[in-house]
Amino acid sequence: MDIIVQKKFSTYPVNVSILLNALRDLIFEVARHDGISDITETLKWGEPSYISKIGSTIRIDWKNKYPEQYFIYFNCKTSLVDTFKEIYGDTFIYEGNRAIVFKINQAVPYKELAHCISMSLRYKKIKHLRLLGA
Question: Domains, the chain, ranges and CATH?
């Protein structure tokens, strides 16, 4: 883990850190599955962020202001979240066109989330396809 990101993870409550680490692990697992080996891990806007050369940035975070929720953010200038809404409807809770919101105690639909992450990591190659090729 990038040292700066590791420091950020250490600021989260333990239970939140576990949840965000699960999202982080899923991002890297999806990248491996999709043959994407150039994932960069860094902080953007103070949030753990993940980007591939052929994709769009994914950020994850928890905020003191919303202690019972954590988030996975996507670039709001893309069609990603609108596509997720069309494909998965109410499988997820969305924050506008920029995030999927999870409650601390909910079961995460990992299969569906992995698909969303995959679309983001490959966005530049699939953005011209209807429903991003879903």
Answer: 3-124 (3.90.1150.200)
pTM exceeds 0.85 for this model:
yes
| One-letter amino acid of 100 | I
Please answer whether residues 100 and 27 qualify as being in contact, where contact means their C-beta atoms are separated by less than 8 angstroms: no
Q: Residue 9 is which amino acid?
A: F
Cα separations (Å) of 59 from 26, 72, 119, 123, 130? 13, 6, 14, 15, 24
Supply the pLDDT for residue 132: 79
Alpha helices in 1-134 (DSSP H): 3-9, 14-33, 80-88, 110-121, 123-126
Question: What separation in angstroms does the CA of 58 have from each of 30, 47, 105, 107?
Answer: 12, 10, 22, 20
Taking a C-beta distance cutoff of 8 angstroms, is the pair 113, 126 a contact?
A: no
